[in-house]
Amino acid sequence: MKQNIALQIVPVSKLFITDDSGNAVETMAGPYNEGTALNLTCKPQPQISWWRDARLIDETYFVNKTHANNKLTIFLTRNDFMMSLKCQASNNNLTSSVQRTIVIDLNSKLNREIYLVKPREVKIMAKHQKLKWNKIEEFVCETRGSKPSADVFWFNDRQQLVSSQTTSEDGFVTTSFVSFMPSIEDNGKNLTCVAINNQIPDFNLNDSITMEIECEFALSFLSNP
């Protein structure tokens, strides 16, 4: 007996992208802080892949009884600000694939130009080799890369010092100044400059020096006539 079997191919009709909390992502995901893990899931059909621009970055997926999932994880850096991610799916070679594109936003305050980025570097400039006892010493510390601009704090061991700071017009560089008079007790202590983005309070960068205090005593001798 000869039988004719008609095979019906049902193309992919719609894709769904969700975040770690299961919330639907339509066109933009975020905002996220730099350094956090971005987790996105694309479903429901087999042969699901993720693309960044024209580059394939993930084609692994899990298939259960009803649908397929492809979960993408990226640890975000400042280079991922406003990047475009595309989820693409198909279930055969005869019909067109379906794709969906979203944009990733890093954490912003007021507009797209201001987003949260950790300080990239901090450095005490022109480090003194030796400090004079009972003489006012001046120090300069510079930090770069924070968005918004970083605040800088100085510490003599655990004691915070009074300081001032300036910020470049583009907000990229913060320069801090501190003056204080070392004592004999400061010998061997650390003078530390700490840069903090107040929007990311659990992260800081610091640079420090170990103070070596020079002490000069003038001795005068009195002789009896």
From TrEMBL:
Taxonomic source organism: Dinothrombium tinctorium
Keywords: Disulfide bond
Keyword Disulfide bond: yes
Pfam families attached to this UniProt entry: C2-set_2
SUPFAM superfamilies for the chain: Immunoglobulin
Chain ranges of the Ig-like domain: 11-103, 119-210
Protein name: Protein turtle B-like protein
Superkingdom: Eukaryota
Presence of the UniProt keyword NAD in the record: no
Lineage: Eukaryota, Metazoa, Ecdysozoa, Arthropoda, Chelicerata
